[in-house]
Structures are given as C-alpha cells and as structure tokens.
Here is the input.
Amino acid sequence: MTLNVAVVGTGPAGFYAADAVLKRIPDCRVDLIDRLPTPFGLIRFGVAPDHQTTKKIMRAFDKTAREAQCRFFGNVELGRDVSLDELRANYDAVIIAVGAGNDRAAGVPGENKKGVIGSATFVGWYNAHPDFRDLNPPLDTKNVVVIGNGNVAIDVARVLVKTRAEMAEADLPEHVQAAIERSPITDVYLVGRRGPMEAKFTNVELREMGELTHAAAVVDPRQLPEAVGEVEDERDRRLKQKNLSTLKEFVEHGAAAKSKRVHFVFFAAPVEIKGGDRAEAVRFERARVENGRAVGTGEFFEIPCGLVITAIGYRSLPVAGLPFDARNHIVPSREGCVSDGLYVVGWIKRGPSGVISTNRPDGAEAAEHIVANVKPAGKAGRDALARLLAERKVRVVSYADWQKIEAAEIAAAVKPSPRRKFTTIPEMLAALT
Ligand code: NAP
Here is the structure.
C-alpha cells in the first residue's frame, strides 16, 4: 500500500519536509498544498528582492516538486477550501508548515496610527505578496524609523535607500520601485533597544550597508564598545567581532558626499508613536543592557518621522484543529509530532528564527517519526482531495500551471531583473487561460 502524505505550506520548511519524506519513503506520495498559486513561501515573499543568490535554493525545491511522487495543489487554503479533519481522513500523515506570516505587536501606544507598518506587511508589499498589493504605504516623508536590529530591519532599510540602478538585478515590482523613487526619504533610523553587540544582524547584511551608492551608514562612535568583551560561544564571539569592526569602519567613512543616510541607533526602546491620525515621531527611552536585557534609564528622546516600520519579529496564528501555545505563538509538539500522523515543522513549530536551512532538520525529524510510527492505511490521498476541491469549485493551480505563471513572469522581466512578479492572484490565474 502507498503512504499518502500531505504537506501544508510550501515555504522552505514544507519543501525540506517533503524532500525528507521522499528520501526515507521513496514509494510514498507527497502532496504539497499552498494557499497561494505560487510555491516557495518566504523564498519568494520574504527573502529580499536584491538577494537573488539566496533565492537559488528554489532550484532544489523545484526539483523536489517535479518528482513523480509529488503533486502541487496551489490556490488551496487550509480552513477555507479543505479542513484539517478532511486532510487527516484522507492522508496517512499531515505535515503543517504554514510559517509565521504575521507581525508581532510592539505593545506601545500609537502603534495603530497611519504610517506604522509591521515588517511582515511591508516586506510582503515590496516582494509582491498578493495580500499586500494595495498597501500603498505613506512614503511621503523624509525620515523613516525602523524598529528592531535583526536582518529584516536591515533588509527594509536597504530596500528604502537603494537606487533603481542598484536594484536592477532584483525582482522589486515596478509600482514599488516607482513609489520608492518618488519618495523624499533621506534618512532611515534603524533603532535597537539593546546595544551593537546584542544586535542580531549577520555580518554580510551589515557590511552591505556600507556599500550603497547614495546612502551612508552613520554610527555614533560613543555607542560602540572598545572591544567585544567576553562571549562564551566562539562562533557568536566571531560574529560580534566582525560586526564591531564593520560598525567602526562606518564611523571612519563618515557620511560625506552622500544624499541619504541610514543611522544605526542603539540603546533605545520605543515607548510611544506620537502624532494625530498619522505617525509624526517615535518617542524612545534610552536603555542600558543589564544581564542581557534592555533596562530603561528614565531619559527620553524623539525621532520625527512619517513612517515607522516595526521589524521586531513575526508570529504564527492558530490553525483550526491544532493546539496552540498563545504565549509563544507556536503549535506545541514533541519534536514536531503533535500526534501520530500529524506534524509541525518550521516557524510554526519553533518560532521565527534562523536562516532557510535551519528548517531542514525539522523535516528530517518528521520523516523519521513517520517511518517509525505511521503505516499506510489504504487512504485515498490526492484523489479524494482533488474530488473534494472540484466539488467546491476551487481553481486548483497545478505545478504545470505554476511553471506557466513563472514563464510569464520571466518573459515580462526587464533584464537583468530575473522576473516581473504578478502582484495579484487574478493576474496569475489570467496567465493560465
Ligand atoms: P530577529 O532576528 O529576531 O530580530 C528582531 C529584532 O527586534 C531584535 O533586534 C529584537 O531585539 C527586536 N525587538 C523585538 N521586540 C522588540 C520590542 N518590543 N521593541 C523593540 N525591539 C524589539 O527577527 P527578524 O529580523 O524578523 O528575522 C527573523 C529571522 O529571519 C531571523 O532569524 C533572521 O536572521 C532571519 N532573516 C535572515 C536574513 C538573511 O539571512 N539575510 C534576512 C531576513 C531574515 P532584542 O534582541 O533586544 O530582542
């Protein structure tokens, strides 16, 4: 009998899981289900548009999707088009890999004002995610504050100050490029509540900020320590050392002769977004780091701005039919196993941290568990799912359909950009008629 496996969510975690299952159980069938007509999740919609090298992992995932045992069910949403119970009734194993697509709240007064946008939303907009096509962020401001000191904060700052020429090899949608070009933005403030040695930027990303055509990286040398100090983990110490050297180079280079600036501001915790209906400034409390935590000093200052991007991490939403840990925004599991035949992998299992390949072991773990504990039970698998979706008149996007969508995007690209992404689902579906 054939083992039928459904993977819900086709970002990195979903693909690593599918790949691991196929390797361990070569004669099984794996169906990849995604609510969008496009596969690859955060590779397409999260990784920055100017980081095309990082997106090359799509080639490996594409190979997996084209395996004879795999089938892609795009434009099919769990909870809308099919329920978890229905999947469990028709598949021997269901792997949930739906990620963490929502913004964490900063929890400060004023964060609902116009001009305050979470990074999941903003990154989705500049990466042509159909959910955010009409975001129309107010870029009519000279100053932007980006709250957070992770790689997403760096991505956002960089995309806001790069020129069209610097973006030529990216796949930034034209309406986004035009909006950024039109905007009067000159100064982006990247603000961390802790210090430069606690920042979560990786060094390649930080260094890029010193190599921009029109934007200078600005650092107040008084916020930099002389040396890294004691760090137990050697790898961590090396990263901090590199980041400190890079920040010191920024100080040496200064901001001369550039028309834009990205200011690195440390030791500042946001306490309020000020303004009327629209954000006009962020009020911060100066902080110091004690036992690794940001502690307020009672001293406050403001940065005037018309746009605030909070890049303070993502969160998953509950999935109907699955338990949910509302404190940590994850589905609780024992090494990815929710119960026999039901698994979670990636950010919905671990929370939103790590790089793409960090998701790989989750897939291996789920596959291991399936091999040990799940036996084929003669379930109908994809035939039952296809029937159910046809009854519900869902326009399923197959992998061949996706390849057509992709070919149309590549054909529409202005070289050297690799593709011009469709920005709405109807446009994608129209490319199939
Ligand atoms: P992240 O690395 O966890 O950084 C989140 C930042 O937000 C931290 O600086 C954190 O400060 C800060 N923060 C959290 N809550 C805050 C609050 N209430 N007020 C002020 N600051 C707050 O998250 P991320 O940048 O969203 O990235 C998610 C994951 O994707 C990371 O693992 C990242 O490395 C990865 N990623 C990688 C790349 C790449 O490799 N190029 C690109 C994008 C994303 P504390 O440290 O003080 O908590």
Residues 106, 147-153, 155, 192-194, 198, 200, 202, 205, 269-270, 294, 311-314, 352-355 surround NAP (CB under 6 Å). The radius of gyration is 23 Å. The mean pLDDT is 97.
